[in-house]
Design goal:
There is one protein chain. The chain is built from eleven helices and 22 strands. By secondary structure, it is an alpha+beta fold. The chain has three domains: 218 residues, FAD/NAD(P)-binding domain; 52 residues, no CATH class; 121 residues, no CATH class. The strands form four sheets. Strands 1, 2, 9, 10, 11, 12, 21 and 22 form an eight-stranded mixed beta sheet that branches. Strand 16 and strand 17 form a beta hairpin. The longest helix is centred in the N-terminal third of the chain and has 20 residues.
Length: 412
């Protein structure tokens, strides 16, 4: 996405096109529009999405897992919204006939050093109100005959769904004016005149309050609005494979994650139609929408490199990053990682699948923002960190962003 420097948008006339102007047509932006329509019928909402349809990036390029909430710090937004959102997402899918399933998942320790972290997850799950069952090696094989591990926990509330279909349904039932192909290039916010947005096509849309749900570009939209977000989005590409022998995996199988990182590690996910997704790893992307090593944006890469937090992050975690990079460039290394869970997998069993990019917010000091981050400024609400499990938690996130937008609207 190309942005110009922030300039004043000249708008003729004083009429407003909407009350709330949402930038971003992913699942969070559409859930926000949907929630506003439910909470305050008659509120005029316009959604601007630069792509020709909804859910083209983070929403539509993930494993499709409805997360239980077991990983997240008790009391955090991620924990509260994921636990609540998982149940609501399954109910929403059932109500609208959207494909979904709740097979549960195993989190498997394959090394003795992982056992304390596995036990900590058991405690965290219980604190978050999630039912878990501890398993030994023989019990693991009852659920997953081809998976090996020293111990595991079963989380029965984990599911899968078609998040793209969910986004389409939210768009359809929101009652909002949704405009696709509307790439934002300029924003002018004035206390007495609301917010005016110009698109690449030259259209100008005016509203009383702006909501920034731009995902991979949310920090840039905040800057265009005139707000310093205090973070920058550092994009990490997640690369996936499909399993050519899907009969090797019955359900969802995850490793024990490293708590120092927001990534859950290479996992096995049986999809709604019988295929098995393997991945992702996590490597720096060379563009906000860099879905392959060949996709490079000099401007975006330079912007990422100019942020001090990027270099602090690299110095702190270069060993972890080197391992992820190796698995990206070497299929053999990726296979070795998968074999920790699934010893019988062979290189020919893994077939390249569509990758995704995670919009990870990084602070100036290099620390990763590990919770959802929503900030309010005059006439604006910015969603600045909403990667996984944001799709799972999108309904409660949408309600929270809608609440803040409506409060801003009442003050405008």
């Amino acid at each position: 996405m190309h942005y110009r420097s922030r300039e004043v948008v000249q708008v003729r006339g004083s009429g407003l096109d909407c009350d709330v102007l949402v930038i971003g047509g992913g699942i969070v932006g559409l859930s926000t529009a949907h929630a506003i329509g439910r909470a305050a019928p008659g509120t005029r909402v316009t959604v601007l999405e630069k792509e020709p349809g909804p859910a083209r990036h983070q929403t539509g390029r993930n494993s499709g897992v409805v997360h239980s909430g077991i990983y997240y710090r008790p009391g955090s937004l991620k924990a509260r919204y994921a636990v609540r959102g998982a149940a609501e997402m399954i109910k929403f899918c059932a109500e609208y006939g959207i494909p979904h399933a709740v097979p549960g998942k195993l989190i498997v320790a394959t090394d003795r050093a992982e056992l304390p972290r596995l036990h900590a997850l058991v405690q965290r799950g219980r604190e978050n109100g999630i039912p878990v069952r501890e398993l030994g090696p023989a019990q693991i094989m009852e659920y997953e005959p081809e998976v090996r591990g020293l111990a595991a926990i079963r989380v029965r509330t984990t599911g899968t769904c078609d998040f793209t279909a969910v986004a389409r349904q939210l768009a359809e039932s929101s009652g909002a004016d949704i405009r696709y192909g509307a790439q934002v290039t300029r924003i002018d916010r004035r206390p007495d005149r609301g917010v005016a947005v110009r698109t690449a096509r030259g259209d100008v849309v005016r509203g009383r309050v702006l909501v920034n749900c731009a995902g991979l570009h949310c920090d840039e939209i905040a800057l265009l609005t005139g707000d310093e977000p205090g973070i920058r989005i550092v994009p990490f590409r997640g690369e996936y494979y499909d399993l050519a022998r899907p009969e090797l995996v019955r359900g969802l199988v995850y490793p024990v994650p490293d708590p120092a990182f927001p990534f859950l590690g290479v996992h096995l996910t049986r999809g709604l139609h019988g295929s098995v997704h393997v991945g992702p790893n996590a490597v720096p992307a060379l563009a906000r929408e860099g879905y392959g090593w060949g996709t490079v944006s000099a401007r975006e890469t330079a912007s990422t490199a100019a942020w001090p937090g990027t270099w602090h992050l690299a110095r702190r975690h270069w060993r972890y990053g080197a391992g992820e990079l190796r698995r990206s460039l070497s299929k053999a290394a990726f296979v070795d990682q998968v074999r920790r869970l699934l010893p019988g997998v062979e290189p020919d069993d893994l077939v390249r699948a569509a990758p995704g990019v995670r919009a990870q917010a990084v602070r100036r000091d290099g620390s990763l923002v590990d919770d959802f981050l929503i900030r309010e400024t005059p006439r604006a609400v910015h969603v600045l960190n909403a990667p996984s499990p944001a799709a799972t938690a999108s309904l409660p996130i949408g309600r929270e962003v809608a609440r803040r937008a409506l409060a801003a609207l009442a003050e405008a």
